[in-house]
Structure to design on (181 residues):
């Protein structure tokens, strides 16, 4: 798909704003990426969006690679440039500044409270991301029970074992290949 300059700028600025909300990593902003790319602009389908994230997450490398894949699937190389620049520049600058500022004040009450408050925020954002990725499969009667079983197995395994999440990705791959999900 070829986007005009206005759409590319909109994509860039949207990811620029999301960068500042990416507490816990860019993956926590997936629900809003989905809303913007799939629901509002129809640049990708639910399946394309989910596949973009799954492919990037299965590949070795930084967690943020899924942003490049989304940008590529929306608008090719210019889409990748827009999404990656948008997601990386503000968070990088803010992280460098905040790390230096926080290191000088790490024992203050404010810094300790702020750090402790980020944990529930990150967990909530990750749960929202999981819902956005799972919801299309849970809505589809042909895949509902397989998707639900995979979600339950994943939760139990992650809470009760130290098994690498990559094994769960492999399980999801097998379940999808066999048509369960």
């Amino acid at each position: 798909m070829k986007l005009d300059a206005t759409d590319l700028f909109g994509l860039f600025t949207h990811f620029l704003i999301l960068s500042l909300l990416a507490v816990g990593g860019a993956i926590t902003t997936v629900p809003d990426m989905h809303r913007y790319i799939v629901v509002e602009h129809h640049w990708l389908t639910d399946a394309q969006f989910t596949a973009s994230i799954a492919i990037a997450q299965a590949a070795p490398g930084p967690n943020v690679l899924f942003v490049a894949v989304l940008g590529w699937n929306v608008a090719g190389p210019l889409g990748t440039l827009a999404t990656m620049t948008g997601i990386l520049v503000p968070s990088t600058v803010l992280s460098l500044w905040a790390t230096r500022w926080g290191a000088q004040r790490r024992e203050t009450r404010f810094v300790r409270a702020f750090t402790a408050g980020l944990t529930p925020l990150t967990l909530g954002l990750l749960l929202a991301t999981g819902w956005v990725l799972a919801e299309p499969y849970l809505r589809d009667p042909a895949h509902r029970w397989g998707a639900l079983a995979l979600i339950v197995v994943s939760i139990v395994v992650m809470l009760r074992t130290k098994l690498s999440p990559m094994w769960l990705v492999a399980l999801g791959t097998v379940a999808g290949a066999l048509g369960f999900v």
